[in-house]
Structures are given as C-alpha cells and as structure tokens.
Specification:
The protein is built from six helices and eleven strands. By secondary structure, it is mostly loops. The protein has one domain: paralog of FGE (formylglycine-generating enzyme) (Alpha-Beta Complex). Strands 9-8-7-10 form a four-stranded mixed β-sheet. A three-stranded antiparallel β-sheet has the order 1-4-11, with no helix packed on it. Strands 2-3 form a two-stranded antiparallel sheet. The chain starts with 7 loop residues before the first helix and ends in a 31-residue tail after the last strand. Bound molecules: calcium ion (CA) (2 copies). The site of one calcium ion has 7 residues, from loops.
C-alpha cells in the first residue's frame, strides 16, 4: 500500500479519497457530525402546492412505448413512497418518506458484466480511471497542500479488501477503523481485480468492478443510456412492493434461503459464505424481483447519477426527481459524492446493511472499488422531468441528460 509511507495528514486525506467509495462505511455521520449547509442553487423554492399541481397535470407513462431493448426490462411508471419509515440511528438520510412519481423507463436486467464492459472497451479504447496514473491536481481541494504528495505515491490502482488485516488493530469505536481493512492495490483494475496477475477470464458473467462513476457514465453514453436516478433505482428495486425492506418482501431469508449475495457472519472477521459466494457472483445467480431485475440487493453496489446529500429527501420534487444540485457528505465535506445503491457481497447484518431497498451510500466519483459496479436505464421518449428538480444537468424534454459526463469536482 503505497500511501502508507506519506505524511500522516496527507495519508489521512488520501485515505479519505481512496476510501470515499468504501461501501461498508457506516452511515451514522450524516445524523451526527458536520451540520448540513443549505443547498445552493437547489430547488428550495419548490412549494408543496407547486408539487401537487405538477403531479396533477398528467399521468405518468406506464406503457412501454417500444419493444424492450436487449437485456433491459420495462419498469412501468407510477407513484411510490420513497424512503424508510422506521430508520435506525445510522439511517437518518433515508427520511423523510416522501411521495415520488416516475415516468416508466427501461433498466438493465443485470449489473453490467465484464463481457459487456469488454465490448465497450474494445469498441472505444476507453481506459478507466483505475488504469490511469493519478495527478496531484486530482486531489485539489481535498488535501491542504497537494505539493506534499510524493511522486511515488501517484500510482494507478484501485481499492481492494485487505484480507490479511490485523484483527488486533480493529477498534470499532474509532470512526476510521475501516481503513485497516482496505488497501489501495497498485495495478488493480476491472481487468485485474486483485492486481497484476489476476484475471477476469473466468468471470466474464460477473459484474464489472473497479469502475469509477465517470467510467460508468462513459459506458452509458456509449450504450446510448444513462445511469439511473436514485429515485428510479429505489422504485425499480421495490418491484412494485410498498413498505418492504428487500426486493422480494420483508423477510431477509425466507425459509432459510439466501436470496442475495451478501456477507454472512461478523464483518470483517468471518465470512461464512452461506450464500455460496465469497466475492462477486455471476449475474442472475439469484431470483429476479417482480420487474425481472437481478441483484438489486447485494452482489455489487451500483452507481446512481444523483449527487449525494443526506437531506435531499426533505426537498425532493415529486415528479421524476433528478437529485440535488451539488453534493454534501458531512462525513467527508471536502469530497463530492455520488449515490450508490443496493449493497454488496461485503455487506453484513452487523455492519452496513446496505442491501435494503431504502439504504443509501455514497462514493467519490473518481474512485472505483472491488465491490462497486453499475447498471443503466433508458428513459421513455416523452418523459417529462420535473423542471423544479434543479440540477447541474438539466434533462431535456425526453428526460435525457444533456451532460452526463460526471463532470465537476467543484
Ligand atoms: Ca456472499
Ligand atoms: Ca447489486
């Protein structure tokens, strides 16, 4: 782990950058730490009356306007109650429960696989962020003095689980304890998930991992699709079910059967692998939800297009919300974050519990990890987004985003 030799302050900041997408970080920060500033340029002017009038203007698009594109399923539009009616202490960013109405859209039935990502890379020559040597400027705004970053620490790679961590160093009362169980592995990328010498040859039907948000956006653009909004993701994950914890209902493993690929046992010490998979599983290894979507709970985390803010639900528009104008994560205020959803094979019931349909996570858009991937959506022609959903990316009349470049780190 190259960054271990740099000055402590820089180490802390660099580790924060690297660990920004560590999907098992607890979500207790938003409720307890840095106060959340008001959202600049957001949709605070939206009134509930305005929301109601928007909702009444027409019915959402429910019928598929065309045949399903290959590998995608139609998610009929409708209304639902988004969020968690009974949040735990670490789940305060899942409230308030609020009404959302969405036009119908298509969604990839599975996480994007290594085979699919390979076709994209072969067609375009695209190089992922994990395969690209970082520059000092990439850390501007996140580290007090980027000139203090040693050249030898600027190496291409990605975040992996450090399975050889020393259990005696784990003190879960310390908020930074997860730093001991993750490591930046030089040369780790989607092609070599565990670093040089590893391979995806026998994993072509597994979800692609070590993709940063910007890599996912690049794939979506190539495919003529986009990343789902957080609202689309939760609506789709529910499979038409109201007030449930999981895509299939309220019981995690009915009849003792595991219905998703997560972590059984006490994280991070013991993985009992009761579901059959220690790391990622081939997509479609478990039953789909009622919409025909696989692995909406577990396997790998999935990027959504929204910026993350813990308080967004307090002001979310009703109609086709496209997320806040900018990010704010009280746990790491200097680092912009995008939303991740669904949990992963690293999520256990004694830690992140991110495999619930309402669970929210966030990650640094520039960082990939070995347990985060994505899937795409395709809006229906004629879907009209709520123009009060002020976003840095104003969607066009078809609900597509003019700019899905993953842009700013401002
Ligand atoms: Ca598992
Ligand atoms: Ca997943």
């Amino acid at each position: 782990m190259k960054i271990s030799i740099i000055a402590p302050l820089v180490l802390l900041a660099l580790a924060a950058v690297s660990l920004a997408t560590v999907a098992v970080l607890p979500t207790d920060g938003p409720a307890r730490s840095t106060p959340v500033p008001p959202e600049a340029g957001g949709d605070a002017s939206t009134t509930s009356d305005a929301k109601l009038s928007q909702r009444a203007t027409r019915e959402p698009i429910t019928e598929a306007p065309a045949a399903d594109p290959d590998g995608m399923v139609w998610i009929p539009g409708g209304s639902f109650e988004m969020g968690n009616p009974e949040p735990g202490d670490t789940q305060k960013d899942e409230i308030p429960v609020h009404a959302v109405t969405l036009d119908g859209f298509w969604m990839d039935a599975t996480e994007v696989t290594n085979a699919e990502f390979s076709r994209f890379v072969e067609a375009t020559g695209y190089k992922t962020i994990a395969e690209t040597k970082p520059k000092r400027e990439d850390f501007a705004g996140q580290i007090p003095d980027i000139s203090t970053i040693p050249e030898e620490n600027l190496v291409a790679g990605s975040i992996c689980f450090n399975s050889e961590f020393d259990p005696s160093t784990i003190d879960k009362s310390q908020p930074l304890w997860p730093y001991a169980i993750w490591q930046h592995v030089e040369g780790a990328s989607w092609r070599e998930p565990e670093g040089p010498g590893s391979s995806i040859d026998d994993r072509m039907d597994h979800p692609v991992v070590h993709v940063a948000y910007e890599d996912a956006v690049a794939y979506c653009e190539w495919a003529g699709k986009r990343l789902p909004t957080e609202a689309e993701w939760e609506y789709a994950a529910r499979g038409g079910l109201d007030d449930v914890a999981y895509p299939w209902g309220d019981e995690r493993n009915p009849d003792g059967q595991w219905k998703h690929n997560i972590w059984q046992g006490e994280f991070p010490y013991e993985n009992k692998v009761e579901d059959g998979y220690r790391t990622s599983a081939p997509v479609k290894s478990f039953e789909p939800n009622a919409y025909g979507l696989y692995d909406m709970s577990g396997n790998v985390w999935e990027w959504c297009r929204d910026w993350y803010r813990p308080d967004y639900y307090q002001r979310s528009p009703i109609w086709n919300p496209f997320g806040p104008a900018a990010s704010f994560d009280p746990q790491e205020p200097m680092i912009p974050k995008r939303v991740q959803r669904g949990g992963s094979f690293m999520c256990s019931d004694n830690y992140c519990i991110g495999y619930r349909v309402t669970a929210r996570m966030k990650g640094d858009p520039m960082t990939g990890t070995f347990h985060c991937g994505f899937r795409c959506v395709l809006p229906a022609d004629g879907a009209e987004p709520d123009r009060t959903a002020v976003s840095e990316n104003e969607p066009d009349a078809a609900g597509r985003l003019a700019d899905v470049s993953g842009d700013s780190r401002s």
